[in-house]
Amino acid sequence: MTKYGSFPGARPRRLRTTPAMRRMVAEHRLHPADLILPAFVREGITSPVPISAMPGVVQHTHDTLRKAAVEAVEAGVAGIMLFGVPEDAKKDAAGTAGTDPDGILQRAIRGVKAEVGDDLVVMSDLCLDEYTDHGHCGVLDADGRVDNEATLERYAEMAQAQADAGVHVVGPSGMMDGQVGVIRDALDQTGHEDVSILAYTAKYSSAFYGPFREAVGSSLKGDRKTYQQDPANLRESLRELALDLEEGADMVMVKPALPYLDVLAKIADAVDVPVAAYQISGEYAMIEAAAEKGWIDRDKAILEALTGIKRAGAHMILTYWATEVARGL
Ligand code: PBG
Question: NCBIfam families in the record, alphabetically (predicted)?
């Protein structure tokens, strides 16, 4: 060995020497337009209600929701995903409030559209769990099981109600078989062929949805394991992906994000449609809680998690920090 041979032949550290150098060679960077803000709007309240398990996130009134939408536009955020929280008295077995033209979500869509028009991509959660008194994402059969076909009929009606209200994108999140195809048909048959479908393609049955259940005042007892995917499965996601694309999904999503980056990477490699990832309520809560205890650096942890999701292949990221992060970029 020569004298120089005793030194490393390659020194990756050279490209890490200064912030400017690191910035130059960064392979991925976040942009405000990568981000989509999920937002909750609740019926029958006059001021925003904080969600205790999601510090910094609230259930909006119509007015504060419109304000949040304007702030998102100003920060350069790409879109907003709306979730409606009806009054408890309006919940029933069929989730009727979900298809009422004057239901909370339909009114929120109209309000946000009136405020921001096409400056923000307005999206809506297309699922029954926020509106059913039993809290499941579909309607139940006589044995108390979620009835796939009966639920699809309700989803078709929801799609029309949301599209009539002016939404740009619907996000079916209930994991019923055939939901994307039925929703596509319903939209096309009602003159809404321009409304897109962001399919929750790989949606896992996750403990990390915990804080969301508070956010929407869910009455669910039990779990969603007969329709959401088992965390143990990866290949199953590719099957769901093929079905969603065949049925007409314009964009596909993986959810949750951080514990499922392998699924995200596989799906992003496999498709030519935009891929979204949803950094869900529990992912938000974990970082906020650890930061509150002084155990991690909040802002760095947020950016690291989001960068990791982007690196894994997400073109769009739903995150409750969307506006804050977009402002800081
Ligand atoms: C179902 C839905 C859920 C979330 C988004 N859409 C809850 C669930 O499937 O139990 C979770 C989002 C989050 O946890 O941030 N309508």
Answer: PRK09283.1
Rounded-to-10 torsion of CA 269, 279, 287, 207: -100
Cα(24) to centroid(ligand 1), Å: 37
CA of 200 to the centre of ligand 1 (A): 10
How many A from CA of 319 to the centre of ligand 1? Answer: 13
- Which residues in the chain show pLDDT less than 50? 1
Q: What are phi and psi of 255, to 5 degrees?
A: -155, 135
Tokens of 126: 């297309």
- Catalytic residues, by residue number, are 203, 255
The H or E element that residue 306 is part of is: helix 298-311
Q: What is the pTM of this model?
A: 0.96
Q: Report yes or no: 278 and 237 within 8 Å, Cβ to Cβ.
A: no
**Which ligand 1 atom is nearest residue 203's CA?**
9
- Identify the pLDDT of residue 9: 86
CB of 244 closer than 6 angstroms to any ligand 1 atom: no
pLDDT for position 1: 46
CA atoms within 13 A on the CB side of 34: 24
Structure-token pair, residue 96: 């009727």
pLDDT (0 to 100) of residue 5: 67
> Is the minimum distance from the CB of 280 to ligand 1 under 6 angstroms?
yes
Q: Is 129 in the pocket of ligand 1 (CB under 6 A)?
A: yes
Sorted by where each starts, the structural domains of the chain and their CATH numbers stand as 29-328 (3.20.20.70)
pLDDT at 219: 80
Pocket probe for ligand 1: among 104, 105, 124, 127, the residue whose CB has the most ligand atoms within 8 Å is: 127
pLDDT of residue 3: 55
Please tell me the number of Cα atoms within 13 Å of 154 on its side-chain side: 28
